[in-house]
Specification:
By secondary structure, this protein is an all-alpha fold. It folds into two domains: about 30 residues; about 45 residues, no CATH class. The chain is built from five helices and no strands. The protein is elongated.
């Protein structure tokens, strides 16, 4: 079997790999609409974890809270306040 660049199947496959600007816009609009429709706030995600397995996911929540505290300016500010109070 030889490859024929004029084959309709080959042209359709190539067109699928290189969408037109209109197709790109339609794809983007579809993705954005779906993300907005299925968007769930982060707090709801965490509360959902607690409802499923409170003990197991409580550890995850603690680790996540510690990571946020240690890697944000808020953590640095709180550490400075604790150090100033201890001195």
């Amino acid at each position: 079997m030889t490859w024929d660049p004029e084959d309709a199947g080959v042209r359709e496959a190539a067109a699928a790999l290189e969408p037109t600007p209109l197709q790109v816009a339609q794809i983007q609009a579809t993705v954005v609409a779906r993300v907005e429709r299925e968007s769930v706030p982060l707090l709801d995600e965490w509360l959902g974890l607690f409802q499923q397995r409170p003990l197991a996911h409580g550890g995850l929540a603690l680790v996540g809270a510690l990571a946020l505290l240690l890697t944000t300016p808020l953590g640095s500010l709180l550490w400075a306040i604790v150090r100033a109070g201890a001195a």
